[in-house]
């Protein structure tokens, strides 16, 4: 059933696209729109919805718990990475339950030369793990969180997300076994392009998160405020949410590293595109509503486009 994963990610992408299209309607008062708003907004963009009923506030957890997503990701994707590395280079094998999932959801390779495909997947799993390590470090030591909240459903979704995304990467290893042959490393041009783009986007994402953190610190680095203000510098000069745009570029860089042709991964990219576009639109609205002098030329998400 190699198409199941692509279908699942497409469905998620479609759900976020629908939520994006519904944003103008969500502003109307009503119980249903209130419930939907509660599910799509988080952090500072939740503050603009006014006072929420007490029972809805029981279903919220601190936004700083984002940290837990990356703890789960570092552990789960680290475990998959070690397993795959052993299976590819040291003649080991993945645990039987993972092999079962892989054979059920993985894809058959059409190409003769599958060595580069095996290497691409290993590389993307490594990039995903490094991304999670950096994000965990940023949550722990860079970002300054306020008392913002997220819905418990968003929290559970976030916990499952990085397990699902790493498992999706693993399932891109062709199920056709290489008959115990050790993997020979084939570095292709698209590995170099993908990895270069990954580091470039990661660098900008980190810089933008540092800019956000510095808005709440004094020159000496002491936290002096937990309020939201207007960020300037780096890609913030072009868009309201450059860290979301960088996230999209990171996933595109992984699609490139997989050799451009991996349909399942492009479905993951579509999910990230619509998920981050929704968050960016709400954040852009927040800035425009709360800061009268907000730069007019700034787009929400994609420079010059959206
Ligand atoms: N792949 C995915 O599906 C996915 C989903 C969600 C997020 N992400 C990634 O995770 C990263 C963080 O996302 P996020 O939604 O948490 O970003 P965010 O809402 O912009 O928050 C990032 C940090 O900056 C603070 N902050 C935000 N705006 C600020 C302002 N105007 N003034 C001062 N401080 C401000 C936040 O504090 P408070 O919010 O605590 O006030 C938080 O500490 C992003 O790089 C994003 O791409 C990925």
Automatic annotation (TrEMBL):
Residues 1-21 form the signal peptide. Pathway: Protein modification; protein glycosylation. Residues 187-306 form the 3-oxo-5-alpha-steroid 4-dehydrogenase C-terminal domain. It comes from the Eukaryota. One of its GO terms (biological process) is polyprenol catabolic process. InterPro entries: 3-oxo-5_a-steroid_4-DH_C, Dfg10/SRD5A3. Its EC number is 1.3.1.22, 1.3.1.94. It is a multi-pass membrane protein. PROSITE patterns: S5A_REDUCTASE. It holds the Pfam family Steroid_dh. It is found in: Endoplasmic reticulum membrane. It is an enzyme of class 1 (oxidoreductase). Its main location: endoplasmic reticulum. One of its GO terms (cellular component) is endoplasmic reticulum membrane. The chain crosses the membrane at residues 65-85, 149-171, 183-201, 263-287. Keywords: Endoplasmic reticulum, Lipid metabolism, Membrane, NADP, Oxidoreductase, Signal, Transmembrane, Transmembrane helix. GO terms for molecular function: 3-oxo-5-alpha-steroid 4-dehydrogenase (NADP+) activity; polyprenal reductase activity; polyprenol reductase activity. It catalyses: a di-trans,poly-cis-dolichal + NADP(+) = a di-trans,poly-cis-polyprenal + NADPH + H(+); androst-4-ene-3,17-dione + NADPH + H(+) = 5alpha-androstan-3,17-dione + NADP(+); 17beta-hydroxy-5alpha-androstan-3-one + NADP(+) = testosterone + NADPH + H(+); a 3-oxo-5alpha-steroid + NADP(+) = a 3-oxo-Delta(4)-steroid + NADPH + H(+). Belongs to the steroid 5-alpha reductase family. Polyprenal reductase subfamily. Plays a key role in early steps of protein N-linked glycosylation by being involved in the conversion of polyprenol into dolichol. Acts as a polyprenal reductase that mediates the reduction of polyprenal into dolichal in a NADP-dependent mechanism. Dolichols are required for the synthesis of dolichol-linked monosaccharides and the oligosaccharide precursor used for N-glycosylation. Also able to convert testosterone (T) into 5-alpha-dihydrotestosterone (DHT). PANTHER family: DFG10 PROTEIN, POLYPRENOL REDUCTASE. This is Polyprenal reductase. It comes from Accipiter nisus.
């Amino acid at each position: 059933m190699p198409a199941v994963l692509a279908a699942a990610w497409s469905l998620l992408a479609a759900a976020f696209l629908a939520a994006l299209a519904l944003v103008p309607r969500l502003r109307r008062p009503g119980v249903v729109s209130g419930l939907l708003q509660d599910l799509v907004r988080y952090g500072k963009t939740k503050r603009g919805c006014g006072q929420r009923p007490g029972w809805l506030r029981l279903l919220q957890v601190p936004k700083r718990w984002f940290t837990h997503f990356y703890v789960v990701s570092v552990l789960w994707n680290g475990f998959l990475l070690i397993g795959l590395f052993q299976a590819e280079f040291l003649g080991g094998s993945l645990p039987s339950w993972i092999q079962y999932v892989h054979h059920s959801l993985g894809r058959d390779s059409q190409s003769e030369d599958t060595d580069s495909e095996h290497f691409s997947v290993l590389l993307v799993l490594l990039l995903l793990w490094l991304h999670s390590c950096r994000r965990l470090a940023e949550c722990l030591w860079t970002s300054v969180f306020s008392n913002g909240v997220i819905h418990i459903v968003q929290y559970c979704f976030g916990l499952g997300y990085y397990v699902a995304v790493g498992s999706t990467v693993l399932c891109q290893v062709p199920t056709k076994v290489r008959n115990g042959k050790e993997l020979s490393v084939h570095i292709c041009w698209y590995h170099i392009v993908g990895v270069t783009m990954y580091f470039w986007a990661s660098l900008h994402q980190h810089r933008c998160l540092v800019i956000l953190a510095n808005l709440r610190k004094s020159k000496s680095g002491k936290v002096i405020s937990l309020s939201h203000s207007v960020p300037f510098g780096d890609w913030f000069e072009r868009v309201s949410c450059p860290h979301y745009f960088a996230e999209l570029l990171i996933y595109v860089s992984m699609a490139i590293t997989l050799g451009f042709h991996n349909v399942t991964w492009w479905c993951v990219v579509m999910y990230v595109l619509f998920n981050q576009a929704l968050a960016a639109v709400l954040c852009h609205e927040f800035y425009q509503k709360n800061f009268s002098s907000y730069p007019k030329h700034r787009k929400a998400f994609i420079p010059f486009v959206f």
